Amino acid sequence: MMKDLSYRAAPLLSTLPVITASAELGGVTVRLMTDNKPYWCNGSVWIDLSATADSRLTSARMSSDVSNNTVTLSNATGLMIALAANSHYALEAKVMFQTAALTTGIRLSQTVPAGATVAAQWNIPISLTASALSNQRAADTGTASTAVDAINANTLATASILVITAATAGNIQIRFASEVAASNVVIKAGSHLVATRVI
Q: Which superkingdom, per the lineage (predicted)?
């Protein structure tokens, strides 16, 4: 609930309301005029959200382009997040990519810690109006897309990924390959991965 503040307008108040024994303000978010900070009531106290980082959220962003001109999956350097053992994660990936030919697609997948359960859905555009879906139930699986609408043009692939780790902690690592051998694909800097540990 607290992470929703980026798109919700909190009421602007001159003072924080007094919390009564009934805890009727639990879950309420407001913004103070005096310091312009958001505050959230947990039912017993007001919490300054500008000073509270959500420890359930982790993100990774690529700082430079990574290329692959083979059909063998390789790591998208920078798109990796450490996952704790015996935990549930909901992840969202936004991968900006380019290919060297109209008839060259990209294959996207992920590795996960040993023993983990994974379900992923990659949505990879093949034109401005159509996409290829790659539903995956294991690491390093999935099919490649077969085309792009323009060569060397930024195209956005997205994924929703669910990972349930077992007794072994480890990393989720986004991986990619070209659909066509000797035809280059590039994952662009700025691509990112966001993980939410579901409690």
A: Bacteria
Phi, psi of 7 (to 5 degrees): -130, 15
Which contiguous run of DSSP H or E holds residue 23? none
Domain interval for residue 63? 57-198
pLDDT value, residue 54: 67
Go through 105-135 and write b for each residue having 16 or more CB atoms within 10 A of its CB, e for each that does not: bbbbbbbbbeebebebebebbbeeeeebebe
Number of domains, the chain:
2
**Is the Cβ–Cβ distance between 137 and 172 less than 8 Å?**
no
Q: Do 181 and 85 belong to one domain?
A: yes
Decide if 159 contacts 120 (C-beta within 8 A): yes
Pick from 33-42, 88-97, 108-117, 168-177: least confident: 33-42
pTM: 0.75
Residues 96 and 185 in one domain: yes
State pLDDT tens for residues 67-103: 999 999 999 999 999 999 999 999 999 999 999 999 9
Does the pLDDT value for residue 61 go beyond 80? yes
Residue 27 one-letter amino acid: G
- How many residues are present in the chain? 199
Beta-carbon-side half-sphere exposure of residue 163 (alpha carbons within 13 Å):
35
